[in-house]
Amino acid sequence: MMKAVLVVHGGAWAIPDELAEASVAGVKDAAWAGGIILKRGGSALDAVEVAVRVMEDNPVFDAGHGSVLNTDGEVELDAIIMEGKTLGAGAVSSVRNISNPVSLARAVMEKTEHIMLTGRGANLFAESIGVPTVPTQALVTEQERKEWQHYKKYTVGVKELFNSQCVHDTVGAVALDAFGNVACATSTGGIRNKMVGRVGDSPCIGSGGYADNRSGAVSCTGHGESILKVTLARLILFHMEQGKSACEAAECSLQYMAERVQGRGGAVVVSPTGDWSAVFTTARMAWASFTAERLHYGLNPKETFEETLN
Amino acid sequence: MLPVVVVHGGAGYVLKQRFEVSTAGVKEAARKGYAILKSGGSALDAVVETVAILENNPTYNAGRGSMLNAKGEVEMDALVMDGRTLACGAVSAVRRLANPIHLARLVMEKTSHVCLTAEGASKFARAMGIPEVPEESLITDHARKCWKDNQCPDANPVQYQMGKMGTVGAVALDVHGNLACATSTGGIVNKMEGRVGDTPCIGCGGYADNKLGAVSTTGHGEAIMKITLPRLILFYMEQGKSPEEASDMALAYMMERVSGLGGVVVVDPKGTWAARFNSKYMSWAAAQQDQLHYGVSLGEDLTEPL
Predict the structure, then answer these.
(1) CA distances for A46 relative to A41, A88, A279, B134, B136, angstroms
(2) Which of B119, B124, B203 sits opposite A207 (nearest CB)?
(3) Which of these CATH numbers, 3.40.50.2000, 3.60.130.10, 3.60.20.30, 3.90.230.10, describes A5-308?
(4) What tens digit of pLDDT does each residue of A149-193 get?
(5) Touching check for A294 and chain B: CB below 8 Å?
(6) What ipTM does this complex have?
(7) Mean local confidence (pLDDT), B167-196
(8) Euclidean distance between the first and the last CA atom of chain A, given in angstroms as a whole number
(9) A228 with B88: Cβ contact below 8 A
(10) Do A119 and B197 lie within an 8 Å CB cutoff?
(11) What pLDDT, on a 0 to 100 scale, did the predictor assign at position A98?
């Protein structure tokens, strides 16, 4: 039996102190929810989906409930899920009015011939398989609506400066199950004041995430456009294929992203043997990992706390 | 060895009677792209204009001539990437545009984003003053026939698609040593509304990096996505493989791992190029050192002076 592992992140960005505690509590909840599935012999795919759903349902994170608003004051969501055995993948981009985009992404993988559905087509598919529609209001916190109003009055340049420093971003998970299968999932509301229809890295295979039983699984977060330019998830796995550890591969890929396109971000990674890592170049990233015996978590650079599960 | 442009008009099955028209289009596009490069133009200009020419040609599944979705509508995807800065622009599921590749370039140059989709992409096109064209103007009789044929209960759109022409694309290296790629498609026939294939995904429909090379892909989009084909080819090249070896290895892997057929055009920073495919046919053309190379069947490499 393989050593089952699950690692989650709640987004790499300059998380303000007032959100710190809730962010850490949120990723621990998600790691626990996904970890239980692995502990009971469930699949990596089920585990990452559940872990991401828990964070989509938690308004502290920018995904599902708690998403940021685009320039029109609307919510558009992106998500991907991938399993490493067959390289099966599903993704949705710019989908509206649903609570759990990661589960819709999984339905695209399992119920269609396609990998990715976008915009109205994704919503039509959601309706056709009976996914309930939720009002936009339900996905947006009062705080986000206020901040959106506040920043709306600034010019585009200021908005971008704000986004570059204070990007609410993305949740994700990777897992290795007892059968040796890996999976990844990533979900996001994107960046505040994004243009209508903006698609970031999250739903893009090889950028927002990638999973391959032969090399490992990765979920990324951070400045989406930079992640896309270097196809960060795939880059990390290529480094692992060449013998680097999960931590070394993530560190050198994030370093490359900083040098080549001046982008910051983070990633959670697991290898087919259970070597895992949570790495970031932003000020903070809330992350948590579940292994058979222990829950690890952290928020600040070089910080790891440990709790023993009972 | 500089400059060079390599274009493809899609991997798949080409009817014998369509060999000539399929190769004529890519040859014309390669000539025009080469002329841009010879006059000192950028690789980016060359690939965008080359792909626009193929979008305007109804022979290919991109722009005019696009395959139709399940509802009989045209939704198009396109990607462009600049190997100098890794800047890229993409549009997915965009409608009523003659040249999606031009909109992808505007996303790259006029926004802080990489990809715009569906209605948001149309909204941006209007803001940029790009005229909408009637959907009818993009639909050929051939596309409508394919759509009808595929409504039979026993039709297999994936197999059918591989039996017809796919996606168009180009890679180029300019006299300044800059690389670029561009890819554009109408997607798979009878796709679900909103289906996005490999084309607009960075690292799937194409990738360009001055340090490694440039790739544009065609074929079964879902298979290409699963293995991020262009990125894989460039990793092999980074490890010392030639464009041809890297392409053949990656296409073989795609067949072994996800049973996928497709084709690629590739160029490295020195100007070594390749046009490789594991489907039955792919129309392609390459222009370098005042020679035009072209072909459509496996192993074929015909030449004529430019």
Answers:
(1) 10, 14, 24, 45, 44
(2) B203
(3) 3.60.20.30
(4) 887 766 555 445 545 555 667 999 999 999 999 999 999 999 888
(5) no
(6) 0.94
(7) 96
(8) 21
(9) yes
(10) no
(11) 97
